[in-house]
Specification:
This protein is an alpha/beta fold. The chain has one domain: Glycosidases (TIM Barrel), CATH 3.20.20.80. The chain is about 35% helix and about 15% strand. It has 16 helices and 17 strands. It has helices at about 15-20, 30-35, 55-70, 80, 90-105, 125-130, 135-150, 165-170, 190-215, 235-245, 255-260, 265-275, 285-290, 335-345, 380-395, 440-450; strands at about 5, 10-15, 70-75, 110-115, 160-165, 175, 185, 220-225, 230, 295-300, 305, 315, 355-360, 400-405, 425-430, 435, 450-454. The strands form five sheets. It has an eight-stranded parallel β-barrel, surrounded by four helices. Strands 9-11-12 form a three-stranded mixed β-sheet. A two-stranded antiparallel ribbon has the order 1-17. Helix 3 packs parallel to helix 5. The longest helix has 25 residues, at about 190-215. The chain is globular, with a radius of gyration of 21 Å.
Amino acid sequence: MVYAFPSGFQWGVATSAYQIEGAADSRGPSVWDTFSQTPGRVLHGDTGAVACDHLHRYRDDIALMADLGVRHYRFSISWPRILPQGRGAVNEAGLAFYSELVDTLLEFGITPHATLFHWDSPQALEDEYGSWRSRQIAQDFADYGAVVVRALGDRVTHWMTLNEIFCFTHLGYGVGQVPEMAPGTVVQTAKEVWQTSHHALLAHGLGCQAIRAHSPQPCQVALVDNYLATVPLTDTPADIAAAQAAFPLAGTNGGILYPALTGEYSPQLLEDLGDQAPEIQPGDLELIHQPLDSLGFNVYTGVYVRAAETNRGFEMLPFPQGYPRLHMPWLHLLPDSLYWGVRHISDTLQRPELRVFITENGCAAQDALTPTGEVLDLDRIQYLQQYLRSAHRAAQEGYPLGGYFLWSFLDNFEWAYGRDRRFGLTYIDYATQQRIPKASYHWYARCIAENRVV
């Protein structure tokens, strides 16, 4: 079978600011600076202070991207590089860097897709009011977004507000124990955690309004979410119905994706949360439920669901001990999660008109240089091949899948795992900052050139 994509399908790669830029001394501190400098929080004590030194090497990196053949690049902008105190005085040198980055992308024929926030909150706002614990952050985020869009909106027309609300709220604030992500704040109740994601949704809503108000030309606005795809164990009507019933109750779907796309929290979720549900003020849901031009879906794995004689008619199945996974504890191989994640937006949430882009998909692999200086990441190629076939199925069946951004273009600072886990198509020798395209880079180049899964 030839897994060819429709003409106009957008092939891209993705990165994030804190994970690749480095040059920490030329911006304000973020919560990830503080978190990674705290002993025991990040593997081997790694930080993003230098990372891939992309801020000084962006032109070479973009040339390498152009050689790959991608015409779309998703990157994030560092809030503390623009506003070192999180609000107030603008760092003009920070804006100038992103302006040059955008100009260079356009020079190489690559369309910029800018994410305003990918987890690196300004430490100043954490110190002042606890960042995502306060409603104030929503307005400060919108004000920051306005600064960026006014500066870059004459050349950038594809904007994303926030990346993966679940990760910087539910994994950044923990009940009774230190969580695995920055800011690493211990709280007393689940309600406080849900309040942080509610405030992030408010930031998304105000951010959408700010982007549209300040863009000097028509633009596209998206939210990027790593919602959990419920995958029917078999393609039977009973298991498909079970997967649909489970969707609002899987992960945080009912409390992040649902309010953003439907204007309501899942009633079943609120019932389950009881007095631990977040406080929702009048007007909040209308603000959160902004019209979107597309949805970004970050997908790595999912959860199997089958029909069962339970009070809700389904059960979510745990992965058994020997189930195949890549080089992260959570990275179970489940290619159908991509197809079902796209399909659920149309069929389960009843938003068939909403275009979906895969804004992240990829895997960590145990990459090593061969004696001849190659990286033969055949496991990554196998993983990507299967997920792209799932993307092809979604496109073939008429679901509005517009493109695919592979995570990640470069090996990078992988959050709590530091430099230990490699997600890139391009190997980084951190001692020398040399870039070495892996076997997967050359494989993906062929997929792009032929507009199909090879």
